[in-house]
Amino acid sequence: LIRIGALLEEHTHIMVVCDDLYERLVYDGDVHYTLAGVCSPSVRDRIITIGGFSKAFAMTGLRLGYAVCSDDKWIKGMGKILGQITGCACTASQAGGLAALRDVPSSWHQEKIAELQHKRDLLFARLQAIPNVVCPREPPKGAFYAMPDLGYYVNKMRELEGDDDTLADTAQLCEQLLSSQGLSIVPGEGFYTTQPVVRLSYATSVEDINDACDRLRDFLLSLETC
Fold first, then answer.
1. Does 122 have pLDDT greater than 90?
2. What are the residue ranges of CATH 3.40.640.10 in the chain?
3. How far is CA 90 from the centre of its chain?
4. pLDDT > 70? residue 85
5. What is the DSSP letter of 149?
6. Edge-to-edge strand list for the sheet holding 198-201
7. 2 C-beta neighbours (distance < 10 Å), count
């Protein structure tokens, strides 16, 4: 973040929009820092910080978020556009967001973070137990996703189909997984990566995590025996 702030000082024509929706979901005792909070005050008027209630307060369906910038001209401009597109967030969403800020104690977030951290560790342990599934050296420090590398099995699938194309296609693997096991995971291509990774969410029950890992393991190992 400090390096990005330095670039903003050097290149005065650049603006940055920071997506900080997961700011409250940080694990292992780490602390979340915003770009605007660590950079020089001279560049803060070119930083727009985006936040919301969907992730931190489990209010996904209410579609409520906000933007912050030290230069209010950008916020006013965004307000004009929003006013022509949607008008505003619905009354129920606004009331829910206000209640979340006023009434939800910090202990609630602490409990949720501990719960998610346990589920994160469970998911990573289960993934690491599947042969040839490659996980990052360390689990993520925030949010609630895992992105293991399934390149070995993507290539195995292509060998079985007689496809000489060496480009990994996790979308094809995900389609076959859904068809054969009824398990839906997301290919990594949708997250700006060319690596053969997939995205799994552990914002669910322990039972569902174990069931999903069983199905994923069975599917991947079946590619070895075909």
1. yes
2. 1-104
3. 25
4. yes
5. B
6. 145-146, 198-201, 186-187
7. 11
Q: Which two tokens stand for residue 183?
A: 């398990």
Report the CATH architecture of 107-223.
Alpha-Beta Complex (3.90)
Q: Residue-wise over 37-61: b if at least 16 C-beta within 10 A, else e?
A: eebeeebbebbbbebbbbbbbebee
Q: 60-63 contacts: CB < 8 A, separation 24 or more? A: 62/89, 62/90, 62/92, 62/93, 62/96, 62/97, 63/89, 63/93
Hey, how many other C-beta atoms are within 10 angstroms of the C-beta on 197? 23
pLDDT band at 212 (very low <50, low <70, confident <90, very high): very high
Please give the CATH number for the structural domain made up of 1-104: 3.40.640.10
pLDDT 10s digits, 51-80: 999 998 999 888 999 999 999 999 999 999
Question: Residue 167: is its pLDDT beyond 60?
Answer: no
